[in-house]
Amino acid sequence: MSVTAWTFVIVGLSFALYIGIAIRSRARSTGEFYVAGKGVSPLANGLATAADWMSAASFIGMAGSISFLGYGASVYLMGWTGGYVLLALLLAPYLRKFGKFTVPDFVGDRYASQVARIVAVVCAIFVSFTYVAGQMRGVGIVFSRFLEVDVTLGVIIGMGVVFFYAVLGGMKGITYTQVAQYCVLIFAYMVPAIFLSIMMVDNPIPQIGLGGKLAESGTFLLDKLDGLHEELGFSSYTAAGGSMIDMLCITAALMVGTAGLPHVIVRFYTVPKVRDARLSAGYALFFIAILYTTAPAIAAFARTNLIETVKDQPYEDAPAWFTNWEKTGLIKFEDKNGDGKIQYTGPASKIENELTLDRDIIVLANPEIARLPNWVVGLVAAGGLAAALSTAAGLLLVVSTAVSHDLLKRALRPGISEKGELLAARCTAAVAVVVAGLLGIWPPDYVAATVSFAFGLAASSFFPILIMGIFSKRMNAPGAVAGMVVGITFTASYIIYFKFVNPDPSLWWFGISPRGIGTIGMLLNFAVAIPISRLTAPPSQEIQDMIEDIRIPKGAGEAHEISA
Amino acid sequence: MDDRESRRAYWGANVRLLTALLLVWGLVSFGCSILLADWLNGVRLWGSGYKLGFWFAQQGSIYVFVGLIFVYARRMHRLDKKHGVAEDDDE
């Protein structure tokens, strides 16, 4: 069977599976719609969280980034996993004990402030929409590359599938679909990695294979790669380099941002007990770690393979995948010196570089570069779609919950019935899917530029007030609001100034890039919130009792309300 | 034991535990993987091609993170029981 036929079959089967699961797990109450009735086992929640978290960027882009940046890409690996430690130790158990549905619920109740609630709702919607547009785009791209359909049609098909299970099933439907999607995506990621590892270093475990010796020459793979990089004038693959303070700041901003993202936090409301919330974070990180520790291996295998395949080869003899991917624009070759050979060189080389490679090529073309069977290519397409769809669905749910629950029920129309709220939730989810799809078809320029800053913004706004809301009984509404406003204003201004107004790295404060500035914004948030809270009246006794209560697991079920 | 007293002891033990775990968290990520990476790269992970700093940055720190959460979950479960604040105590 051809690559396209295999892709259609595998993608079709995976979609049928997701829809089948959605039909079986329809939501019947708002509790089921928002938090799956709090009946998800910690293991299933861990799987669902992993799928929710790993987006098209993790699946397609991560290995590519590592491949081109080497050691420098470690900030993403550590940033996007280390955040789960913060989440498990500092947030998840307490928010589960608090027991309402959303992050704005906690902010609004803890600080007894409608202003804080609305600010949180707006932040949640903004962050989620920026993110979801990227996912829909990812769906469209996978469709167009593997199935040769138009990007627009691809996005519409993706929207249809998400629409079906998110609107119908709510969190309950999404959770069980995500469990299936995790299985699809991890299988699709591991199969080519294991094949490559066996072929190149004769070890079926990629994480060990990365440190192994090449089967043909007996030198260590990483030494070989460092050697190739030096020869071609690229910076060393494994050596530490770059600005240390910037690396520290970016890593911290990504970690803290991860712990502050609403679609991740909300997953920990779905488990039955506080104990399960802690355990579930462990499972989630374990399942994420399988992919994140494999990515560096794929990156190095593919990089070595790629360099050896194209280095100084005559263009006419280039393999079929090379010319195939050239058509998509992901590979660009320009024979500058006219010798008919491919010169691929780095900035330190005297020879001019003739080859431009898109980062996504590493995962997308990997099966072809390694000459793996056709069904593996179809599997990778299904995996990319699973990653993009699962993340999109989780984010859409945050948006619909923010509107129907936080805005409508908790702020504008408190008297709304359970049925009315559920209907509102479904309608907003439907509208959100359509808007997200439109953003995917016509992505505004700002999306690509801002999505990587969402972490910095979440780090400088949400995270400190959530932490202090739990760990400091003295923290009050004026302190929290002031901290949030200062943190996010500072971070957003720095990003906008150095990204759009005056993009000159030599002017960065202490050499900190806009991606890392969220860390400073977070510190400012703390530095403003603490003194202001000490100078103003402490929170009421009622709120202090509530904080006492969320600090202990006992009585978790009681705080749970389904309808008013 | 007095209920308030017991709760305070429980919270104190919780904060001590998570401070210790977060120290390890910071040590493997900010410490071994960034600040000390260059220095650790002078050594290799036994018998492999991994330079130690590089290994921490792309593999080791992630393994430690996973371990930390499970240690926390286990330890807290024991603390919950010891201080009588576990959820199962109601039943």
How is this structure best described in words?
The complex is a heterodimer of chains A (564) and B (91). Chain A has 564 residues and is mainly alpha-helical. Chain A has a single domain, classed as Sodium/glucose cotransporter (Up-down Bundle). Chain A is built from 23 helices and two strands. Chain A has helices spanning 3-24, 30-35, 42-53, 56-69, 74-98, 103-110, 114-146, 151-201, 206-209, 221-232, 244-260, 262-265, 274-310, 320-328, 361-364, 366-369, 374-412, 418-441, 445-451, 454-471, 477-501, 517-535, 541-550, and strands at residues 331-333, 355-357. Chain A has a two-stranded antiparallel ribbon. In chain A, helix 7 packs across helix 19. The longest helix of chain A has 51 residues, at 151-201. Chain A starts with a helix and ends in a 14-residue tail after the last helix. With 91 residues, chain B is mostly helical. Chain B has one domain. Helices cover 75% and strands 0% of the residues of chain B. Chain B is built from three helices and no strands. Chain B has helices spanning 3-35, 37-40, 52-82. The mean pLDDT of chain B is 89. The chains are: A mainly alpha (564), B mainly alpha (91). At the A-B interface, helix 5, helix 10, helix 11 and helix 13 of A face helix 1 and helix 3 of B.
